[in-house]
Design brief:
Elements lengths: L6 H16 L16 H5 L28 E9 L8 E11 L2 E11 L4 E12 L4 E14 L2 E20 L2 E14 L15 E9 L3 E10 L2 E12 L5 E10 L7 E10 L2 E10 L9 E9 L2
Antiparallel strand pairs: 1-2, 1-14, 2-3, 3-4, 4-5, 5-6, 6-7, 7-8, 8-9, 9-10, 10-11, 11-12, 12-13, 13-14
């Protein structure tokens, strides 16, 4: 039996593989896969294309905060693969401000390890143009750096939220759509055109009741379809604690996705969320992903 690879080398090997992908024609999704999405979004399997009640929604749909009438700010800390000696971490900040009848959104995330660094910034704006329809757009700028190589790329997204309304006395339906990477530049160090990220199209739905929420996203990118789903329940007997469960998978083979669980609680405008995501694909050998988010909503 061959000797086991030391844990501290696993991340270096993966970073090298990611770097090779970035400079090859297949390097269209190697960077910026882990963004500043918060613990609530992660616990719901990333299914937040029709979510509107969290600042972190700006990472999924630029129209998420179009109807936001108040200031919101949040910070997220992400620990990837905690079982590794040199586990990479990510820190993110999100801000939503009411501007000109809509919501101005800004996000910043930075991922770092010994051999790899990423930074991703986002600025966007969303506004309701009809009692039922809100639209939004954003521009993202991301950079990556490893020994001897670096690059900065940008992209632009559009999104919308449609309020279907009460479809039952206790259930409210909301739909969402996102067109991601409509405009984008190459991720590769050499700027190869082939290394532009492929466009993605997301259709989403959110079904809400007084204490429960079910969210579903379907994303189509590069010939593959990914299904994401999440469930949230609020239990009044626990002081309003939120319990969450979610997951994602590629419909072609039903693998390569993940499962997530999480908890959340709010108090006088403050909220604290935690999530744990366990990958189902080959990366499961590296362990799961922990996220902790702290935020404030102005009342």
């Amino acid at each position: 039996m061959p000797p086991a690879v030391p844990a501290r080398w696993l991340w270096r090997i993966n970073a090298l593989v990611g770097w090779l992908l970035l400079i090859s024609v297949s390097a269209v999704q190697g960077a910026f896969e882990v963004t500043g999405s918060g613990a609530r979004t992660a616990a719901l399997g990333g299914a937040f294309g029709a979510g509107v009640d969290a600042a972190e929604g700006l990472w999924i749909n630029p129209a998420a905060n179009a109807r936001n009438p108040r200031w919101r700010v949040g910070t997220t800390h992400v620990l990837l693969y905690p079982g590794m000696e040199d586990s990479p971490s990510l820190n993110a900040l999100t801000l939503v401000a009411p501007v000109a009848g809509g919501g101005l959104q800004m996000g910043l995330s930075a991922l770092g390890s010994e051999d790899w660094e990423e930074q991703l910034g986002l600025i966007g704006y969303g506004r309701a143009i009809h009692p039922r329809l809100a639209l939004g757009g954003d521009v993202r700028s991301g950079g990556w750096q490893t020994e001897g190589l670096s690059n900065r790329a940008w992209s632009a997204d559009l999104g919308g939220i449609y309020e279907v309304g009460w479809i039952h006395s206790r259930h409210y339906l909301r739909l969402g759509w996102v067109m991601r990477d409509l405009l984008r530049s190459s991720l590769a160090a050499g700027g190869q055109v082939e290394a532009k990220p492929p466009r993605a199209y997301i259709l989403a739905a959110s079904l809400n009741s007084e204490t429960q929420q079910v969210l579903v996203d379907v994303e189509r990118r590069a010939g593959q379809t990914q299904l994401r789903a999440g469930y949230e329940s609020t239990v009044s007997s626990t002081g309003g604690m939120h319990f969450r469960l979610g997951g994602s998978a590629f419909t072609s083979a039903w693998d390569g996705g993940d499962l997530s669980v999480g908890l959340g609680h709010g108090w006088k405008g403050w909220y604290l969320d935690f999530s744990y995501t366990y990958p189902l694909g080959p990366s499961r050998a590296l362990g799961g992903i922990h996220r902790l988010s702290l935020g404030y909503r102005k009342s």
